[in-house]
Amino acid sequence: MFKNLSYLWLSLAIMALQIFLIDELSIAMWLRPMIFPLVVILLQMEWRPIWVLLTSALVGLTMDLALGGSGLYTATIVPLAVIRRGVMYFTTKRSIEHGDQTSLLSRLSSRQLLAYTSMMMFIHHAMFFIMETLSFAHPMQLFATIVCSTLLSMLVAWPILRIFTLKIVSK
Amino acid sequence: MNRLIEFIKRIYIVLLFLVIEVVAIWCYATATPYTESKLLSRTTAVGGAISGTVNYVKNFVSLPDQNEALTARVAALEEELERRDAIIDSLTPDTEHIPFLDSVDVKFRYHPARVTSMTTNRQHNYIVLDRGTRHGIGMNMGVITPNKEFVGTVVSCSENYAVVMPLLNTRFKIGGRVVENDYVCSIFWEGDSQYEVTAVELSKYANPQAGMTVNVESDRMPRDIKVGTIKSHKLNNTKSAYSVVLNIAADMQSLSNLLVVENMHQGELDALIETINN
Fold it and tell me: I want to staple A69 with a disulfide (CB 3.0 to 4.6 A). Which of A64, A123, B145, B160 is the partner?
């Protein structure tokens, strides 16, 4: 089962956390965690693609307005809406099948959910930092930024994933 | 019609995704000069590479190779002419030996280049050349046609390509000089006609007439590079200077083989100017 209202509150909390806390932290230039992609990543898989696409555009637009991204946040989060089913199949070998009674996310094990979320976060971080720098002059530094920021993002995202598993998807 | 609607229904998600992405990237690209120049150089490099491939195929069945060879020949002859002029200028009644052509130091060198892609229908037009830093092209070098008509200035360079800001760009400005009376003016494009540019700040004593020629006034190019001819003129509001409309000499719609002009003394000149500024 997927509790939509609880998910809405969780999404708002994630975005508020990103805007008012995580983005205010200045740990290092190459260490910038981003957890707001979770809103799109953890959207119900059974949702119609058009709603997922519009929701991701709305999340990106909100981030752009709140954090002054000038379109960067939107440009890098919208592709997640398109690729998430493919990434789900690639990482867990699971897909939506005709006649499913429960949400696909609720049928994932913790390890599968972590693998899917990590891959999506890595893709998002890679797109974000490549578009932000627009340069491959220092490829190792860029790669380190993507990897370290993804790891830190996943560390921050872990409690949220636990809440998601316990409160929003029930098995 | 029904099939078209069915097709659009099938791919509307992809279309919507592309629209959102394009709008977001466009917003991001135009947000700062850094992103604008970076994305421009990336897209021109990709566009340049694609156009280069297409042109390569076309070359098998058309004349660009011969044109390129002729442009290179023009470049060589221009340099030779520079050397001859330098020899003539150095001659005095006491001269005993005329120096060899190859031993004379020239002020300007000419690099032949071919247009890979260009636009003329926007406010900020650019031209991409198939020559870059590897071929001796550098920032701020002038670009002319083989007929010595002014085209623009190099604004960005990669290893194999150069981006030229042409006269037909509203951000472009250059000095001009009326050939008949040596009065100087400032030339720019207002973004209207693709055949005309505007010259302002021309002295009220210049007495401009239709048909007079205006050349480029820049230390980066020889003095005989033609910008255009005067089409019409009027005094400005304060009646202190003329505003002049020029017919552009170069055919900006059909540029193919060009020459990039390098001032061999530019480094020395820049250093000298810097000492004054400091």
Answer: A64
